[in-house]
C-alpha cells in the first residue's frame, strides 16, 4: 500500500522536531567538552571559537576516573554474568518443570518490579552492616561485593521473567529429543535450548549491563572512595569553589562510550530477544 503524501508530510513534521530535540543535548555536550572552561562558563556559543581536547586529557587527573572506571567495569560485569547464569537455570526450571510453589515464585519475582528501588535501600543497608558485624572476616557494606549483590536484586527478577517467557516459546520436543538421546537436563539446556534462546540471553545481558552501569541511587549510599563507581565519580568534578563543566561533559561522553558501542553491536539481538520474548 502506497504512502499518502499528506501522511508523509505529517511524518516529517513530527520526526524532524523530535530528532532535533534528541540530538541537541548531545551536540551541546560534545561542543562543551571541546571548549576551555572559561568559554563554557561564559556566554553560550553554538559553534566554539576555541577547540581543544585538553578536557579529555584532564579528566583522568582531576579525579581518579580510571579507578572509578575499573570499579564500574568489575561491578557491572559481575552483576551481568551472575544475573544471566542464575536467570538461565531458574527460567529453564520454571519453563520446563511443574513443582509446588512454582507459580507463586513466578508471581513474587514479577511483583518485585512493582516497587521503587528506594524502598530496598534501607533494608539492604541494615543487612550489609549486620553481616559485617556478625561475620567480621568479610566486608559487604561499601564494597564492590555489596554493590554486585545489590544490583542482582533488581536485574535478576526481570531477567528470570523475560527468559521464562522466551523459553516457553521454544518447543519442548527439542530438549526431550536430546534427553532420549542420552543427554542430561543440563546437557539439553546447554546444547539445545541455549543456542535457540541466544537472542533472549543477549537481550537479558544487555539489560542487566545497562541497568547496573548507570545506576546511581544505591551506588551513592553503599560505596566509599575506594569502591565508588563512575556514576558517582562524575560528581567529583564539582568542588566547593568551581565546577569543571567541560570535564564533566568529556567524562560523560567517555562513560557513555561502552554502552553506546555495546548497544550498536548487539542491537540486532536485543530487538529480536525483546520482541520474541514479548510475543511468545
Overview of the structural elements:
It is globular, with a radius of gyration of 23 Å. It has 280 residues and is mainly α. The protein has helices at residues 5-33, 37-41, 54-62, 65-96, 102-111, 121-135, 144-168, 172-180, 185-196, 198-213, 217-221, 230-233, 245-279. It contains 13 helices and no strands. Helix 4 runs parallel beside helix 7 (144-168). 31% of the residues are buried. The mean pLDDT is 83. The two termini are 28 Å apart.
Topology at a glance:
Layout: H1 5-33, H2 37-41, H3 54-62, H4 65-96, H5 102-111, H6 121-135, H7 144-168, H8 172-180, H9 185-196, H10 198-213, H11 217-221, H12 230-233, H13 245-279
Structural class: mainly alpha
- Low-confidence residue ranges: none
Strand content: under 5%
Task: Tally the helices.
Answer: 13
What is the gyration radius calculated from CA atoms? 23 Å
Q: State mean pLDDT (0 to 100 scale).
A: 83
The profile of the biggest β sheet is:
none
Broad shape: globular
Count of extended strands:
0
Secondary-structure element pattern, one letter each: HHHHHHHHHHHHH
Share of helix, binned = over 70%
How widely separated are the two ends? 28 Å
Provide keyphrases for this structure.
single chain; 280 residues; mainly alpha; 13 helices; 74% helix
Structure summary:
By secondary structure, this protein is mainly α.
Amino acid at each position: 500500500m502506497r504512502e499518502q503524501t499528506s501522511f508523509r508530510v505529517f511524518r516529517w513534521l513530527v520526526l524532524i522536531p523530535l530528532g532535533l530535540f534528541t540530538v541537541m543535548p548531545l551536540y551541546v555536550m560534545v561542543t562543551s567538552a571541546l571548549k576551555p572552561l572559561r568559554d563554557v562558563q561564559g556566554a553560550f556559543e553554538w559553534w566554539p571559537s576555541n577547540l581543544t581536547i585538553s578536557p579529555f586529557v584532564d579528566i583522568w587527573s582531576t579525579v581518579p576516573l580510571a579507578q572509578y572506571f575499573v570499579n564500574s567495569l568489575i561491578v557491572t560485569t559481575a552483576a551481568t554474568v551472575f544475573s544471566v547464569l542464575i536467570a538461565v537455570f531458574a527460567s529453564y526450571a520454571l519453563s520446563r518443570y511443574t513443582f509446588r510453589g512454582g507459580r507463586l515464585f513466578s508471581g513474587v519475582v514479577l511483583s518485585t518490579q512493582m516497587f521503587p528501588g528506594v524502598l530496598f535501600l534501607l533494608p539492604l543497608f541494615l543487612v550489609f552492616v549486620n553481616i559485617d558485624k556478625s561475620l567480621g572476616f568479610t566486608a559487604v557494606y561499601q564494597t564492590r561485593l555489596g554493590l554486585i549483590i545489590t544490583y542482582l536484586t533488581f536485574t535478576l527478577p526481570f531477567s528470570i521473567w523475560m527468559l521464562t517467557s522466551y523459553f516457553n516459546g521454544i518447543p519442548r520436543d527439542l530438549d526431550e529429543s536430546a534427553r532420549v538421546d542420552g543427554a542430561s537436563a543440563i546437557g539439553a539446556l546447554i546444547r539445545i535450548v541455549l543456542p535457540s534462546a541466544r537472542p533472549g540471553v543477549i537481550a537479558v545481558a544487555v539489560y542487566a549491563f545497562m541497568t547496573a552501569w548507570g545506576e546511581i541511587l544505591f551506588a551513592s549510599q553503599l560505596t566509599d572512595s575506594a569502591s565508588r563507581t563512575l556514576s558517582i565519580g562524575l560528581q567529583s568534578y564539582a568542588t566547593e569553589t568551581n565546577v569543571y563543566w567541560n570535564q564533566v561533559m568529556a567524562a560523560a561522553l567517555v562513560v557513555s562510550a561502552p554502552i553506546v558501542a555495546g548497544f550498536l553491536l548487539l542491537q540486532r539481538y536485543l530487538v529480536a530477544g525483546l520482541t520474541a520474548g514479548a510475543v511468545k
